[in-house]
Amino acid sequence: MTMKRLNLFACLLLGVCLLLIGFYLLATEIYFVHKASAFDASIVEVRKELVHKGKGSVMAYVPVVEIASGTDRNLRMSVDTFSEELVYRVGDKMNVLCDLSESPRCIKNTFASKWGNSLLGFVFALVFLSIPLIYYWQAGSNRVRDADV
Description:
single chain; 2 helices; 31% strand
């Protein structure tokens, strides 16, 4: 097996793995969005804490919102978002999507927050799957041109 074919096979394998990861992330995001409810919550606290970014961690500001639950008490939940700049202020409103079941979780109610992970997985899968596809299209057209001569 030549090195070119080995690289194409590796790209194909990596693309298929990334496609499966993209479908898994899409399924978990659909499940979360299905169970979650949208709230226009007030920011009651802004914490400065370590958050993961890239290969390391950075100190960033994380908003904590207060949500009126079905019971007579309000829930305080940190939102799965952060900013290295102080852009969140106590008293501001934030549109969030929260799952208040066994494992409570809140995210910003934006398209990128809901679907960004799976879209990123699909984009990387498309890149790695297109490399062998383009190679075989070019190889096929070269064979057709050679046969016409």
